[in-house]
Design a protein that fits this description.
- By secondary structure, this protein is an alpha+beta fold.
- It has five domains: 11-76, OB fold (Dihydrolipoamide Acetyltransferase, E2P) (Beta Barrel), CATH 2.40.50; 81-148, Beta Barrel (OB fold (Dihydrolipoamide Acetyltransferase, E2P)); 172-406, no CATH class; 423-475, no CATH class; 568-680, Nucleic acid-binding proteins (OB fold (Dihydrolipoamide Acetyltransferase, E2P), Beta Barrel).
- Strands 1-2-3-5-4 form a five-stranded mixed β-barrel.
- α2 crosses α3 (242-250) and α7 (336-356) crosses α8.
- The two termini are 53 Å apart.
- The relative contact order is 0.08.
C-alpha cells in the first residue's frame, strides 16, 4: 500500500471514487481534509480507485458545497484486472463493457487476446494499457467466467470484481491437510478442562463455522458467571506460516448469497476449529462475573478445552424464550433454566450499554432463498430476536473485557475503533431530526447518548427505520487500528474483536497476542516488531472488510433484482426511504428498495429541498418527503446493474404524514394479488406527458 507524500500548497493526494455519472470525489487519507469534487472534464485519465494528485480549485464553501479540484497526476493505478461482458464490433475489434458502473469506458481487446471468448461471455481482462487522452484502455482476456445469464456466472462476476479467491494456494492447503482432525493428548497440557460444563452454541441453522460457545450460571444473589469460549484458532494457524499468510491476505470470510469464501480451509473452519456438538475442542475462554446491573466484577482469560453439550439455533431459542413453545421447552428441558438466566443477564448487559449511551441500530437484513440452480425463489426480512440479542450482548462483553485487559498492559494490540462523527454530517442529521420533532443538542459535539435518545423518540413511528438508516450512514465506518481510540457507536472506551477467529483475521491476531501474555512478558524485540507490523495489518484488514461487505451487498442486490423481474408491472405499497435531487428511494414491505426517478414525475417540475429532505412541485406544490407512504409500480429490474426502477402507480399522490396505515394494509383496488403483497397494474405505463 502506497504511503501518501506530504501535501504541497494546494496539491492533495487521495483515492478517487467515481460515480456512475462520470464525476468523482477524491478521498484524502488525512481525516481533516474534506472530500474534493472532481468534475468529469477534470478527471484526466484516472479510473475508479486510482491514487491521484489533485490541485484544489476552490476551498470549502459556507453553503455546504464541496471543494472542487482537478486531477494533475495519477500516482498509482488500482485496476490491473477488470470484469465485464465481451462483444465484437463490426470491424472485428473486441470490446469489454465493465460490470462495475464506476468503470464506464469500454476496454479494447485486440483479436490476438480474445482467448477463445465469445460475444456475451463474462470475462476477466488484464489491462495492458490504461486510458490516455482520447484512447481507451486496452487489455487481454485472462479468464472466461461463462455466458452472461448462465447459472452461477453472476456470483462469479461479483467474486472476480472484488478479486475474491476461489482456491487456497498449494502450500496453505498442504499445511491444513497435515493438521489432525482430533485433539491429541499432549495438546491439553496447560489447559483448563471445562468439558463438564453445560456449554452450548447458538447460531443460525445453516452455520457451519461455529467459533463461539457460551454458558451461564447464577453464582449468588444478583451475580452471574458468563463463560464465552472461542475456538483457539491460533493454536493451529502459526505466525508467518502459509496458512497464516493466506489468512492475512484474505482478511475475512466472505458470505455471498450462494456460498461462503472462507478465510481458512474447510478442514479447519468447519472441522477441528469449529465447536461442533459432542466434540472436544481447544478454546480460549473469557469467564466473567457480572452483577445484576451489568457491571463486570472480575474476570479470567485462559486456554481451555470444552465439549459443546448442545447445538442450538436462534429459532429454537426464540421459540423457547419468546414463544413459550411447550414442545421445545420439554425437548430441551435441562437447558431451559440456563436459557432463562441468559435472557436475564443479556437484558442487564443491554441496559448497562444503554445507560452509558450506546446506539442500537436494529435494522432488518434480507435473506435470499435460492433453488438448486441458484435462482432466487423467496426474499425474507430477518429481524433480531431475543436469541440474537443474547449472543450479541455476550460477545460484546467478551470483546470489551479482552480489549481493556490488553490495553491496561500497554501491549501492542489491534483494536476495533469507531471515530467521532463528522460535524458537517451531524449538522445535516440535526436538521432532519428537528423536522421530525427530535433534537440532538450541539451538533458540533454530538454524543452517542444524544443519538440514542433521538432513535428512542422515533420508536414505533413510520419514519423509524428511515431515521436509523440515515443516522447509520451519517456515522463514520468502524475500523481496525493499532491504537485505542474508543468506539463511538458502542460508547465504549475499550473494544476489540476477539470472538470470531475462524472468519476474521484481526480476531486471530488478538488471540495470538493474548496467548503470548499467558507465557509471560513480551520481549522488547517482540514489542518493537509488533509496533511496526500491527498498523499495516489493521489497515489491510479494514480494507478487506470493506471489500467483503461490498461484495456481499452486491450479491444480495443482484439476486433481489433477479427475483423482482417476475413482478414488473405490479404495484406495491411503499415508504419513501430517501430523497435526492434525481428522485426518491422507496422501500417495499419485504425490505426491497428501488428508485422513483424524478423524470417519471411528469405532472410538474420538481425541485429538491435538501434541508427539508423532500421534492416539491413548482406549480402544484405537491411534496414527496422522507417517510411518506406511496404506491409504486415496478418498471425495471436489472440484475446486471443491481437496481430496481419504480414509478408512482397511476400518478398517485403521496399519502400525507397523518396517515398511520401500515404499507400493505390499505384497501386493495384489484383482486389479483402477487406473492409480495402487491397488486397487478391495469396499465403498463402511467407516466404522463408534459
Amino acid at each position: 500500500m502506497r504511503t501518501p507524500r506530504k501535501q504541497v500548497d494546494n496539491l492533495i493526494e487521495g483515492r478517487l471514487q467515481v460515480s456512475g455519472k462520470g464525476f468523482g470525489f477524491v478521498i484524502s487519507p488525512d481525516p481533516v481534509v474534506a472530500d474534493v469534487y472532481i468534475p468529469r472534464e477534470k478527471m484526466l485519465d484516472a479510473m475508479h480507485g486510482d491514487t491521484v494528485q489533485i490541485r484544489l480549485q476552490e476551498r470549502q464553501f459556507s453553503d455546504g458545497r464541496k471543494a472542487e479540484g482537478e486531477i494533475v497526476k495519477i500516482l498509482e493505478r488500482a485496476n490491473t484486472h477488470v470484469v465485464g461482458t465481451f462483444s465484437v464490433n463490426p470491424r472485428g475489434l473486441g470490446l469489454v463493457q465493465p460490470a462495475d458502473s464506476k468503470l464506464a469506458a469500454e476496454i479494447i481487446i485486440p483479436k490476438k487476446s480474445f482467448a477463445a471468448a465469445r460475444p456475451g461471455d463474462q470475462v476477466v481482462v488484464e489491462l495492458t494499457r490504461w486510458p490516455k487522452q482520447e484512447k481507451k484502455a486496452e487489455g487481454r482476456i485472462t479468464q472466461i467466467l461463462g455466458k452472461l445469464g448462465e447459472p452461477g456466472v453472476d456470483v462469479l462476476t461479483v467474486m472476480a470484481m472484488h478479486q475474491l479467491p476461489t482456491d487456497f494456494p498449494p502450500a496453505a492447503a498442504q499445511e491444513a491437510d497435515k493438521i489432525a482432525t482430533t485433539i491429541q493428548p499432549d495438546e491439553l497440557t496447560g489447559r483448563r478442562d471445562l468439558r463438564d460444563l453445560s456449554v452450548v452454541t447458538i447460531d443460525g441453522e445453516d452455520a457451519k463455522d461455529l467459533d463461539d460457545a457460551v454458558h451461564v450460571e447464577q453464582i449468588g444473589p444478583g451475580l452471574f458467571r458468563l463463560g464465552v469460549h472461542i475456538a483457539d484458532v491460533s493454536h493451529y494457524v502459526r505466525e508467518n506460516r502459509p496458512l497464516d499468510l493466506e489468512a492475512r491476505q484474505r482478511g475475512t470470510s466472505v458470505y455471498l448469497v450462494d456460498r461462503v469464501i472462507p478465510m481458512l480451509p474447510h478442514r479447519l473452519s468447519n472441522g477441528i476449529c469449529s465447536l461442533n456438538q459432542g466434540e472436544d475442542r481447544l478454546t480460549l475462554s473469557a469467564v466473567i462475573d457480572i452483577d445484576s446491573s451489568g457491571r463486570v466484577v472480575k474476570y479470567e482469560l485462559f486456554p481451555s478445552v470444552i465439549r459443546v453439550r448442545t447445538r442450538l439455533s436462534y429459532t429454537i431459542v426464540r421459540r423457547i424464550l419468546a414463544d413459550k413453545d411447550a414442545a421445545l421447552q420439554e425437548q430441551y428441558a435441562p437447558l431451559v433454566p440456563m436459557l432463562k438466566t441468559m435472557e436475564t443477564l443479556a437484558a442487564a448487559l443491554r441496559q448497562k450499554r444503554f445507560r452509558r449511551g450506546a446506539i442500537d441500530f436494529d435494522l432488518p437484513e434480507l435473506k435470499i432463498k435460492l433453488d438448486e440452480k441458484g435462482v432466487p425463489i423467496a426474499i425474507e426480512k430477518r429481524t433480531r430476536s431475543v436469541a440474537e440479542s443474547i449472543i450479541e450482548e455476550f460477545m460484546l462483553a467478551a470483546n470489551e473485557t479482552v480489549a481493556e485487559h490488553m490495553d491496561r498492559r500497554e501491549i501492542p494490540f489491534v483494536f476495533r475503533v469507531h471515530a467521532d462523527p463528522d460535524p458537517e454530517k451531524m449538522a445535516k442529521l440535526a436538521d432532519l431530526l428537528r423536522g421530525l420533532g427530535q433534537r440532538i443538542g450541539a451538533w458540533t459535539n454530538v454524543s452517542p447518548m444524544d443519538l440514542q435518545k433521538a432513535l428512542a423518540g422515533m420508536e414505533g413511528k413510520p419514519e423509524e427505520k428511515m431515521v436509523s438508516t440515515l443516522m447509520l450512514r451519517s456515522l463514520k465506518q468502524a475500523r481496525y487500528e493499532a491504537e485505542n481510540a474508543g468506539h463511538f457507536g458502542l460508547a465504549a472506551k475499550y473494544y476489540t474483536h476477539f470472538t470470531s477467529p475462524i472468519r476474521r483475521y484481526p480476531d486471530l491476531i488478538v488471540h495470538r497476542l493474548l496467548r503470548e501474555t499467558f507465557a509471560g512478558s513480551l520481549s522488547p524485540r517482540r514489542i518493537e516488531q509488533l509496533q511496526s507490523l500491527l498498523p499495516q495489518i489493521a489497515s489491510d484488514c479494514s480494507d478487506r472488510e470493506r471489500a467483503a461487505t461490498e461484495a456481499e451487498r452486491e450479491s444480495v442486490d443482484m439476486k433481489v433484482a433477479e427475483y423482482m423481474q417476475q413482478f414488473i408491472g405490479d404495484e406495491f405499497p411503499a415508504i419513501i426511504a430517501g430523497v435526492t435531487g434525481f428522485g426518491f428511494f422507496v422501500e417495499l414491505e419485504n425490505g426491497v428498495e428501488g428508485l422513483v426517478h424524478v423524470s417519471s414525475l411528469q405532472d410538474d417540475y420538481y425541485q429538491y429541498l435538501e434541508d427539508q429532505h423532500c421534492l416539491i412541485g413548482e406549480r402544484l406544490k405537491k411534496r414527496f418527503r422522507l417517510g411518506d407512504a406511496v404506491t409504486v409500480e415496478l418498471i425495471k429490474a436489472s440484475p446486471a446493474d443491481r437496481n430496481l426502477d419504480f414509478i408512482l402507480a397511476g400518478g398517485a399522490n403521496p399519502t400525507t404524514r397523518k396517515s398511520t396505515a401500515a404499507p400493505g394494509k390499505r384497501k386493495a383496488k384489484h383482486k389479483e394479488v402477487n406473492p409480495l403483497g402487491g397488486k397487478k397494474s391495469k396499465h403498463k405505463d402511467r407516466r404522463r406527458k408534459p
